[in-house]
Amino acid sequence: MRIEREMANSQEPGALTRMRGAAAFERRKSYQGYYVLPLLLLVAMIAPHGTRPQAAAPAAQPAAPPPRVVYKQVFQHLVFLDYQANIADQHGQNGNALRNYYQTHATLTAPEAALLKSTAHDAVAALKPIDQQIQTEVTIFRSQFAGGKWPRGKPLPPPPPVLHTLQAAKDKVILDHLATIQNGFGTARFQHLDSFVQAAIAPHITLAAAPALAAAKAGSKTADQGKTLRQLPPVPWLQ
Questions:
Q1: I need a labelling partner for 189 at 20 to 30 A (CA). Which of 9, 12, 38, 98 fits?
Q2: Is 78's pLDDT higher than 60?
Q3: Same domain, 17 and 124
Q4: SS3 letters for 144-198?
């Protein structure tokens, strides 16, 4: 090599030896790099298969509430809006935005809105005595236990059969009044109303297992479910 020849000509054997050793070291580094780089690439290709994080399983979608649940809330919501509209009127405010909420936002005709409103008020009125009977039966049932509470740690007894009968009566009231709306609107116009209800009302409704029933029927796929309505945002009216 040129460097070695120059060092030899300079008659410095110690320097020549050091240069030869450095050259050999550089060759060893090159050989190491030649083999190590493919090895690293191979490891990089293999390792992800064992270490790649698994994608999380998609969350189960909540069950859609059935029509009897959705339209019970629609009937109660409509009656509540009428009640709030009357209060607004009594305070010198314009309650028409509340009173006409469904007609405006569901784009109903005046006869359709009138039928929906009257049917809702009739349904809510028909449900009241059934709800009172349910409350009476629940009070009687709870009176069997000290303080109205079931002893902690003991399996809960099944609800009285009469409660199932009363719940079936409530469901029939709702479905009968829903059929009145369907018949009065006709197929196309009812689908128009239902599209609004499913978009604006149904998303606020969740089906949640009642705590008592869930504890009594742990592990059962057929446990009854309680129904709750999340509070809807207030509907502003003109002041």
A1: 98
A2: yes
A3: no
A4: CCHHHCCCCCCCCCCCCHHHHHHHHHHHHHHHHHHHHHHHHHCHHHHHHHHHHHH
